[in-house]
Amino acid sequence: MSAIKDVALFLYGFDVSFNVNRYINFKNASLGPELTATLNVGNYTATEYMAAIKAAMELVDGVNTYTVTLNRSINGNTENRMTISTSGSFLSILFGTGTSAANSPATLIGFISTDHVGFTSYTGTFSSGTILIPSLMPYTYNYLGPENFTMKDGVKNISSSGIKETLVFADQRFFEGEWKYIANFGISTELTQWQALVDYMTRQLSFEFTRSINENPNLYEQCTLEKTPQDSNGMGHQFKQMMGEGLYRFYTTGPLTFRVKPI
């Protein structure tokens, strides 16, 4: 793996639960009826989640087209703020007074739980989902990208005459990363943030990974955790203290392997 003089970003937590955060009440006309977009229960990446919002709103609208985007830039503290727009001339999102406002995803997608009226496009006040941006010094982040780590999903047969035949179904793409010098000082530490992320990943839930937030924040992978040093199925993990370097307050993830989700 090669070292990268930049920091990565993990974005996760886009989970829809029954009667918790699956309803978006909105209007597409000033005097029109309240419409309710219903999201399917499940685990999503941010990209999948935005597509689900778009599909759910268009399903009940039937006239207008909706666009849901994410500002992935870190400039001005606007990273991962979500925007919902309509092709129509009117849009009110009723996160405050809607019939199902108490069960909306407003908080998850960074919106304040009030009605959003007067415009045809609205952007959240806060970052959507949960973000982990590791605090890393140079040469503490090792990375091997999916362009250099592929496998074929298929079958191979060698006949009695020695002829090899293969049938390839799909390309499987992976990447690897290792993070060091994860600090454990105070109450809410970088280590506790990592522990929350790893707990999420070892449950085999999907998330997004941006390899370099400064060089190209729009280059990201949708993925799941594939393997850790402790579990070849990616369902267990142990942080290691960097005792060999005399750094008992710092930890390392060890090499982690991630599977890129097919698009």
Task: Outline the structure in words.
This protein is mainly beta and 263 residues long. The chain has two domains: 2-8 and 132-260, Elongation Factor Tu (Ef-tu), domain 3, CATH 2.40.30; 16-129, no CATH class. The chain is built from two helices and 21 strands. The chain has helices at residues 46-61, 190-202; strands at 2-3, 9-12, 14-16, 23-27, 35-38, 42-44, 66-71, 81-86, 91-94, 115-119, 121-123, 130-132, 141-144, 150-158, 164-179, 182-183, 207-210, 220-227, 240-242, 247-252, 256-260. Strands 1, 2, 12, 13, 14, 15, 17, 18 and 21 form a nine-stranded antiparallel beta sheet that branches. A four-stranded antiparallel beta sheet has the order 5-4-9-10. The chain has a three-stranded antiparallel beta sheet with strand order 7-8-11. β19 (240-242) and β20 form a beta hairpin. The radius of gyration is 22 Å and the shape is globular.
- Ranges where pLDDT stays below 50 over 5 or more residues in a row are none
Biggest beta sheet summary = 9 strands, antiparallel
**Which CATH class of the largest domain?**
Mainly Beta
Strand content: 35-45%
**Number of E-state strands:** 21
CATH topology of the largest domain: Elongation Factor Tu (Ef-tu), domain 3
Question: Can you count the helices?
Answer: 2
Computed over alpha carbons, the radius of gyration is: 22 Å
Secondary structural class: mainly beta
- Looking at the overall shape, the CATH architecture of the largest domain is Beta Barrel
* Mean residue pLDDT: 88
**Secondary-structure element string:** EEEEEEHEEEEEEEEEEHEEEEE
Global outline: globular
Question: Any idea how many domains?
Answer: 2
Secondary structure: helix percent: 10-25%
Distance between the termini: 25 Å
